[in-house]
Amino acid sequence: MRASMVTATRRNLFRVIDIFQKWRKKRASDCRVFRQRDNQMLAVAARGTPLQFQENRVPFQPSSSSDLEPLRRSFQTIVDRLAPDIAGHPRRTGGSLDVGGRELRYIDLHSVYWQSRQIFIDRLYDLDIPSRSPVILDCGAHIGLATLFFANRFPTAQVHAFEADPTIADALAFNVGSFGLPRVTVHRQAVWVNEGTIRFSATGDDSGCLLPDGDTGTLVSTMRLRDFIEGREVDLLKLDIEGSEFAVLADCDGALKNVRALIAEVHLFGQRDASLANLLTVIERSGFRYTLSDLHQPVWLPCPARPPFRQLHTSLGLVTVFAWR
């Protein structure tokens, strides 16, 4: 009886090994197909040669709610493809990717990789919105990955996408058209504390920032966020504006009563007047409940002074505030 049990166990083990080998062959085949499809754009990017944008060949077709899962799978494939050698790709080199048969223009492949992981794989910005026709503000939209997520997650939403960098705003506008998002409005402006113009440091990736006291950089148009949200029902306000969130939210103090939910990436990069306590006070005073999550140590930035704690590699920080009613 013991011999028969051993034989059965070995037979089952061989079956498992056979299934696993077939799965590996299929996965390898899928990877080859993906590599062949994107070989030109990724190989050229790897050599550091700027890619030329191609004309959009995808006819305009409005997206539907059923598009979100295929879209997520497409970005999962891109993340899996890029993950083994993401450090080997050059920074700030533009190009295009095929995402479910639609062209996605990018400015920096590293930014696409990390944003794809956050937005489509980890679903950092996902939430429940009871409104049938929500209004969403994507401030710091970059090339539009969060905009794309919101528009597909909530097909009846009116999405306002703000991007200050002129070159990145061009890619954002193209991607909105490429993916057929008629309910998205692109604003080629920075959200700020007044209307007018301001200097902007265009870094060629997702870390460009405003220079309130600067006399160099690109001159860009600004929109006062407070004026935009006052008297308007906003279901979600998303802020990823590279350090300007402190001044912008302080200026919005007392005007957030019509905002139902807020997601803000807070950049504690040692800038003057960057107070997390003051920012959270504005959120509390506006009647929000909130929590902090997605904390990172930005070790890629120069650190003015190493903290005494061995667990910390920098005194700088990056954290996301989630606020709701």
TrEMBL record:
The protein's matches in InterPro entries, at most eight in alphabetical order, are given as: FkbM_mtfrase, SAM-dependent_MTase, SAM-dependent_MTases_sf
A Pfam match is Methyltransf_21
Keywords carried by this UniProt record? Methyltransferase, Plasmid, Transferase
- Presence of keyword Nucleotide-binding: no
Query: SUPFAM superfamilies attached here?
Result: S-adenosyl-L-methionine-dependent methyltransferases (SSF53335)
| GO BP term, pick one | methylation
Q: What top-level branch of life does the organism fall under? A: Bacteria
Task: List the Gene Ontology MF annotations in alphabetical order.
Answer: methyltransferase activity
Start and end residues of each Methyltransferase FkbM domain: 138-290
Do the record's keywords include Methyltransferase? yes
Q: What is this protein called?
A: FkbM family methyltransferase
